[in-house]
Here is the input.
Amino acid sequence: MMLSKALHINKLYDIYGELLTPRQKEVFEYYYHDDLSYQEIADVLDVSKAAIYDNISKTTVILEGYEAKLHLL
Here is the structure.
């Protein structure tokens, strides 16, 4: 059974989250745990919406990369 993308990413975060930078963890948690939009996160952190999109995209790639190498999920 295929997990939803958000559930899959959250499971990867549970396993590999400590390997992320504090900023990556902060943005990830705002987006996936607090359900804030890109714009809401950008407003809180005083950065652009594009910066938040890039951060979440790169963090997702990093988490998937760890899983591809370590296969802990």
User: Anything to note?
Assistant: The CA atoms of residues 10 and 32 lie 7 Å apart. The radius of gyration is 12 Å. The chain has a mean pLDDT of 94. The chain is about 75% helix and 0% strand.
